[in-house]
Design a protein that fits this description.
Structural class: alpha+beta
Strand content: 15-25%
Largest sheet: 4 strands, antiparallel
Distance between the termini: 45 Å
Number of strands: 9
Helix content: 40-55%
CATH architecture of the largest domain: Up-down Bundle
CATH topology of the largest domain: Butyryl-CoA Dehydrogenase, subunit A, domain 3
Bound molecules: 3-thiaglutaryl-CoA, flavin-adenine dinucleotide
CATH superfamily of the largest domain: Butyryl-CoA Dehydrogenase, subunit A, domain 3
CATH class of the largest domain: Mainly Alpha
Radius of gyration: 21 Å
């Protein structure tokens, strides 16, 4: 059944398997996540109590094959992200980090032993992971990372710090990127390892229903078998980012859908100057503009899915979609907030929460400027970073 939130009837293009994934996660979001999320955001608390249920859905690491992973296609992964972000960007962040930034690098670059040890548990959410790339002195330029890895006998010693790490303090395993003589290398650092600590970043006005931490590595000894053997150079972490940014391009559509739906319902019911707000030309124009932003974002996301399935998706295409879709979602969330008037500033309605969350989403996984410059580099052949 077409709705304003699916103006181009894109749901009719889903395969039965994709529709089953979408409807399963949508039901979970409606019944289990949405009743919890506004209070969790207000309390500044990740709703960890639903993590086992998320694991039981069987959608973490959606597109990965084998080792207990679901083995579903890229569109299914996109739909999972979209539905979770319809609830809250913090929940989609949890799914992105676990799936694209922890399970993906272990799957793509890990040893057989690492895959067997971690992937089945991560897929069921019996173990949680985090991804440490950003450092306090500047996340946009990871090539300038200062975290160091040096050999010590058969082990490695890690020294440095990571900043803004989603799930940092609740993770059983951290994928930590460090500069070594050989170039950038990736390590699996287990919780409780001597010299390794995580502290949470407080006073966030955004992504309040998500854990964000700083990681400290002070002479952390890691055996060679915990190094990702196939990860060599900055390309390895950047390729993880491409997976996560793909999911964010879809996820942003979920946040925008929630805001559009709220604005539509509210303006249909709110009566001013002798009629419903939705009868006013300017209000209809604003709702129509939201539909334009959402529908074009959804088209981009679905097109990325086709290219990803074909194996031809380029990172700059993902940059274009992450940039466009998060910007559109942010504009829709802000406009929906305004259409609710004073009621829009309360957490009783989702637009302000999505609007605040999207301030993080437009910054992490490459800021908007970084993605504009990535597209600029591809079309001119000149790097202007
Ligand atoms: P550059 O020379 O461009 O690249 C080095 C090598 O990597 C390759 N590459 C990529 N591969 C896959 N995907 C991508 N997106 C790639 N971008 C580049 C490239 O081909 C090259 O390969 P090779 O074989 O020639 O070595 O590197 P650069 O130093 O010029 O940097 C380019 C730039 C600025 C685009 C990159 O540094 C960047 O993306 N910066 C932004 C950093 C960022 O996005 N950090 C995100 C941290 S994780 C996070 O925010 C998680 S939030 C999750 C949540 O809670 O949901
Ligand atoms: P900076 O890199 O210092 O950028 C500051 C400003 O300068 C930005 O406006 C940027 O666009 C601009 N700028 C940068 N370079 C240029 C240029 N060449 N030309 C013009 N302008 C430029 N990181 C992880 O590794 N793992 C995580 O799990 C993770 N989770 C996060 C969760 C949250 C809630 C947040 C907020 C961040 C998270 N991050 C994570 C970090 C995130 O990826 C970085 O914040 C982001 O990459 C930007 O880095 P920065 O904050 O250091 O800003």
């Amino acid at each position: 059944m077409p709705t304003p939130e699916d103006f181009l009837d894109l749901l009719t293009t889903l395969s039965p398997e994709e529709e089953l994934v979408r409807s399963t996660v949508a039901r979970f979001v409606d019944e289990r996540a949405l009743p919890l999320v506004p209070a969790a955001f207000e309390e500044g608390r990740f709703p960890r109590e639903i993590v086992p249920e998320i694991g039981a859905l069987g959608v973490l690491g959606t597109s990965l094959e084998g080792y207990g992973c679901p083995g579903l296609g890229p569109v299914a992964y996109g739909l999972v992200c979209e539905e979770f972000e319809r609830a809250d960007s913090g929940l989609r962040s949890f799914v992105s980090v676990q799936s694209s930034l922890v399970m993906y690098p272990i799957h793509a670059f890990g040893s057989e032993e690492q895959k067997k040890t971690w992937l089945p548990r991560l897929a069921r959410a019996e173990a949680l992971g985090c991804f440490g790339l950003t450092e306090p002195h500047g996340g946009s330029d990871p090539a300038a990372m200062r975290t160091r890895a040096r050999r010590s006998g058969g082990d490695w010693i890690l020294d440095g710090a990571k900043m803004w790490i989603t799930n940092g303090s609740i993770a059983d395993v951290a994928v930590v990127w460090a500069q070594a003589e050989e170039g950038v290398l990736g390590f699996l650092v287990e919780k409780g390892t001597a010299g390794f600590a995580a502290t949470d970043i407080e006073h966030k006005a955004s992504l309040r229903a998500s854990v964000t931490s700083a990681l400290y590595l002070d002479g952390v000894r890691v055996p060679e078998r915990q190094r990702l053997p196939e990860a060599r150079g900055l390309k390895a972490p950047l390729s993880c980012l491409t997976q996560a940014r793909y999911g964010i391009a879809w996820g942003a559509c979920g946040a925008a859908r929630a805001c559009l739906e709220t604005a539509r319902t509210y303006t249909a019911e709110r009566r001013l100057f002798g009629g419903a707000l939705a009868e006013k030309q300017i209000v209809q124009q604003r709702l129509a503009r939201m539909v334009r932003g959402l529908a074009t974002a959804q088209l981009l996301a679905h097109r990325l899915g086709v290219l990803k399935r074909a194996g031809t998706l380029r990172p700059a295409q993902v940059s274009l979609a992450k940039w466009n879709n998060v910007r559109s979602a942010l504009e829709i969330a802000r406009d929906a907030r305004d259409l609710l008037g004073g009621a829009g500033i309360t957490l009783e309605f989702p637009p302000i929460r999505h609007s605040l969350n999207l301030e993080s989403v437009i910054t992490y996984e490459g800021t908007e400027t970084i993605h504009e410059l990535a597209v600029g580099r591809e079309i001119t052949g000149v790097s202007a970073f």
